[in-house]
Amino acid sequence: MAETTTDHETIRKWAEKHKGRPAAVDATHDGKDVGIIRIMFPKAPNSEHDALVEISWEEFFEEFEKKKLALLYEPSSMFSKLISRNGAGKG
After folding, report:
1. What pLDDT sits at residue 63?
2. Which residues of the chain are under the pLDDT cut of 50?
3. Distance from CA of residue 81 to its chain's centroid?
4. What does the alpha-carbon distance between residue 90 and residue 44 come to, in Å, rounded to a whole number?
5. pLDDT score, position 44
6. CA-CA distance, 29 to 8, in Å (whole number)?
7. Residue 13 has what DSSP assignment?
8. Any idea where the domains of the chain sit in the sequence?
9. Is residue 60 within 8 Å of 22, Cβ to Cβ?
């Protein structure tokens, strides 16, 4: 069952448990502008990490808060999606 969170520590622990790393879409990432953020899983089958650039957790969470996002995720798998907090149902 999928869960939703905005808690930074929960997100980081979940991502690291599944070998995930903070990332930005390379085409949108420009020095001063992080761009579109994602959590990448470089070792996952069918990973699209070639289109992503790894960023720091600090950069990731700064953009996460700026855009008022939440993480919809499956605790026991790599399923995740960044969504708007407005539609998340949780704060």
Report:
1. 94
2. 90-91
3. 7
4. 28
5. 72
6. 21
7. H
8. 3-87
9. yes
